[in-house]
Amino acid sequence: MGDLHISLLSAGIAALINIALAARCGKVRVASGMSHGDGGHPLLLKRMRAQANFVEYTPLALILILALELTGNGGWLLALSAAVFMLGRVLHAAGMDGDKPNKLRMFGMLMTLPLLLGWAIAAGLVAFRVI
After folding, report:
1. Right CATH number for 5-127 from 3.40.50.800, 3.40.50.410, 1.20.120.550, 3.40.50.150?
2. Global pTM value
3. Could you read off the pLDDT of 10-64 as tens digits, one per residue?
4. pLDDT value at 68 more than 70
5. SS3 per residue for the chain
């Protein structure tokens, strides 16, 4: 088994991003005095959804990255794609503060969904010993 440096680094970066997203929620909670739920506070709701969206997509990504790396399909392409995914998640979260659809959210999703699809296809190809 390899050292799993791509998976470990990806998981570590994901944890740091999640902490940052939680801190953004906390900042609004303290400023608004809202200790539970969103209380109808628009910015808090957006930030909570940004963190939830991160938590919805990232575990699947980390599982796929780990599985590909465990099967010997790591390397620079997996590392680069993992970095792009994390950047996309940050951009998407930053774009969630806006009131209208915007380029940050759009680019964030364009850096998320194709990578998840690519990793899923690669995982299937590895599972069936095509690659």
Report:
1. 1.20.120.550
2. 0.95
3. 999 999 999 999 999 999 999 999 889 889 999 999 999 999 999 999 999 999 9
4. yes
5. CCCCHHHHHHHHHHHHHHHHHHHHHHHHHHHHCCCCCCCCCHHHHHHHHHHHHHHHHHHHHHHHHHHHHHCCCCCHHHHHHHHHHHHHHHHHHHHCCCCCCCHHHHHHHHCCHHHHHHHHHHHHHHHCCCC
